[in-house]
Amino acid sequence: MAKNSPPVVLTIAGSDNSCGAGAQADLKAITALGCYAQTAITCVVAEVPGRVSAIQPVKPELVAEQIRMCFEAFPIAAVKTGMLFSTPIIEAVAELLFKKRKKIPLIVDPVMVASSGDPLLKPSALRAYRDLLFPLATLVTPNLDELRILSGAVCRTPEEMAEAGRKLVRKHRCAFLLKGGHLKSREAIDILVTPKGTETFTAPFRRNIDAHGTGCTFSAAIAACLAKGYPLPQAVSRAKAYITRAIHEALRWKKTTALHLNP
Questions:
Q1: Superfamily of domain 8-260
Q2: For the segment 93-134, what is each residue's pLDDT rounded down to a tens digit?
Q3: Which of 37, 137, 153, 172 could pair with 30 as two cysteines, CB 3.0-4.6 Å apart?
């Protein structure tokens, strides 16, 4: 690739036919932030904001081959994982990424439940996340529900979130960004916890906004900023500004309840 080519970011995620979440949302965010997006599709999901009707996982061997070919042909500068769905897919992804550990940033968005409440991860796959992917991660980005599952804590306040995050950082030895949008306070509070301490990022909380795709977009934006060379706190800050603007400018259609973030 030419010297002036943009940094390449690989997203390993599910396909959302409504293009508001998943790999499609990642593509938009990564491109809007000046990087070149690659995809490895893990699942084909039939969904619209508020409802998931079907999930068809891709064979783990094909997921692995997509990743392998991306690394073979492009200078990947950062990787983001989204919906991985099952233990065999997580195992296939982790095996390939293990070879790249410590060389490039890895953002793990532990997608477990859709904003509609529909499950997006088999219960048996949670251990695979903890054992195989978290040890490779630069940053894990759970939302409030995922944080409660991972930590076993109730996490009703920012203080409880931060304490749960500190325990996870000590256990898994990687940074955690705790997304507090589901607290539904006056501010959308996200807490970055690293071995060095905590940092809080806030923005006005927008009510009556469907959260479909916000987590995917946020983590993809962080990956893009890391690929461009920003340190982790600055990457989170820039990504926070991006997702805040995208929510503020979200697209709506009168015919449906669908909402899409505007990159």
A1: Ribokinase (3.40.1190.20)
A2: 999 999 876 689 999 999 987 666 667 788 888 999 999 999
A3: 37
